[in-house]
Structure formats: structure tokens, C-alpha cells
């Protein structure tokens, strides 16, 4: 966690933009999140198995093909995060908006850029509406909630705070 915060603060004031990866929490932060318990994900879903094959294309393409534990979706962590999401749902109900709108508004309020993926026009409209949400009530909720669980496997946690330096160095060389 400290590494991620350091990277973000380090980039402020330097003209470096930060892109929020998975601003809707791999599906957690939508109104119709289908999974109600840790083993409820499909057998081949990375949130259950940890198998990951993501592509990140900015300047370089990094391919990860390995078994990677995703602690935030496993065991008791699942229920801890679900409790936080339930609080966000209450806030969304009070504000008469969706959980996704709250999540995207929060990301924007932190000065981050989000590019949520969607295949539906209705989701695109929902994402766009997030620009109109004020989030004063969410500050205490977030402060009370963090940190709840480990977000990354040990190998990825060791990279937090370091990968951005490597990426920026690669961009500078080009």
C-alpha cells in the first residue's frame, strides 16, 4: 500500500497522469455483481483460480501467464470487501445513482483517470453520469474501511511502487 501511495504522490506536480486499473474492482463495484460467496465465480474465472493472462499495452506489452493468488477475492477477504461494497450501495441509494457511478466519481475525485471497459451503451451512459456525483459522504467511509485486505499476491505486492519507475524510464528512453 505504501508503495502505491508513494508512486501516486511522486507523480503529482510532475505532469504524470495515473490511470486507474480496473476502476470497478473487477466487477465488485457494479449493482449487479453476480457473485455472493468466494467459490461462486466460474471455475475458470481468475478471481477464483488466480490464473491471469492480462495484457497491458502502453509502450511495452507485458504478458503474465502464471498462477497468481488474488487475495481480495478469497476466503474471509471476500466478505470483508463485500461489507464495504454494501456500504457503498447504501450511499448510491441515497444519491439515487449506481455503485459504478460512485466508484468512478471517487476515482476522478482522486485526480486519476479511469477507462472502464464496457460493451453496452447503457453502461457507457452510466459511466458518463459519474461526472455529476459529489462524494463528501464517502470520505469517512473510505477512511474507516482501509486497509481491509491484501490486494495483491506477494509477487505483485513486491512490485508496487517500483513498476511505475521502470515504465517511466522506458518511456523516457523512447
Automatic annotation (TrEMBL):
It comes from Stachybotrys chlorohalonatus (strain IBT 40285). This is NADP-dependent oxidoreductase domain-containing protein. PANTHER family: AFLATOXIN B1 ALDEHYDE REDUCTASE (PTHR43625), REDUCTASE (YAKC), PUTATIVE (AFU_ORTHOLOGUE AFUA_8G01560)-RELATED (PTHR43625:SF7). Keywords: Oxidoreductase. One of its GO terms (cellular component) is cytoplasm. The keyword Nuclease does not apply. Residues 12-137 form the NADP-dependent oxidoreductase domain. It holds the Pfam family Aldo_ket_red. GO terms for molecular function: oxidoreductase activity.
Amino acid at each position: 500500500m505504501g508503495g502505491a501511495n508513494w508512486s501516486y504522490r511522486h507523480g503529482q506536480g510532475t505532469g504524470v497522469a495515473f490511470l486507474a486499473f480496473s476502476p470497478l474492482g473487477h466487477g465488485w463495484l457494479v449493482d449487479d455483481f453476480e457473485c455472493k460467496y468466494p467459490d461462486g465465480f466460474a471455475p475458470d474465472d481468475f478471481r477464483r483460480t488466480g490464473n491471469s493472462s492480462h495484457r497491458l499495452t502502453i509502450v511495452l506489452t507485458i504478458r503474465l501467464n502464471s498462477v497468481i493468488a488474488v487475495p481480495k477475492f478469497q476466503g474471509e477477504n471476500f466478505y470483508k470487501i463485500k461489507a464495504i461494497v454494501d456500504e457503498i450501495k447504501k450511499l448510491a441509494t441515497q444519491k439515487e445513482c449506481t455503485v459504478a457511478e460512485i466508484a468512478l466519481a471517487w476515482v476522478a475525485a482522486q485526480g486519476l483517470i479511469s477507462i472502464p471497459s464496457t460493451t453496452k451503451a447503457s453502461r457507457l451512459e452510466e459511466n458518463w453520469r459519474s461526472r455529476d456525483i459529489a462524494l463528501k459522504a464517502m470520505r469517512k467511509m473510505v477512511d474507516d474501511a482501509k486497509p481491509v485486505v491484501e490486494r495483491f499476491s506477494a509477487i505483485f505486492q513486491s512490485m508496487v511502487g517500483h513498476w511505475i519507475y521502470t515504465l517511466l524510464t522506458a518511456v523516457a528512453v523512447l
